[in-house]
Amino acid sequence: xxxxxxxxRADYALRAVIELAAAADGGHVTADxxxxxxxxxxxxxxxxxxxxxxxGLVRSQRGPDGGFWLARxxxxxxxxxxxxxxxxxxxxxxxxxxxxxxxxxxxxPLQTVWIALRANExxxxxxxxxxxxxxxxLPNRVRTLADNxxxxx
Length: 153
Prior knowledge:
Layout: H1 8-22, H2 31-38, H3 42-54, E1 58-61, E2 67-70, H4 79-87, H5 110-127, H6 130-135, H7 140-147
Antiparallel strand pairs: 1-2
């Protein structure tokens, strides 16, 4: 079965950025605080924060009042933005983008299935923002999908 593979880096990045989104009044959070709160190895986190900064998702400041904060409001940063910043394009089959796979004969429709699957995953990840996560108010479509008992099996 094909499913989205979320790298450890992307998982850590999501958790770190959600902590930043939850910080009171957009206050700065240190890398140490993020590492401790989410159990992320320090060196790993530094590399992730650098990638997120280069992607324009977080800002940082050095010094005694230093730390990290979101570069945009939490409602303007989707989960897809974060995953792409860390792992590149969403969802592939054996590391390939589905539009680059050549299926022939009876298997030809598989390509359309993989493209539809990717589109569905993208739709969810692009719709859900950090604000949705921090507030606990997920979009209705996401709740409906998750409310299906088969989704948990």
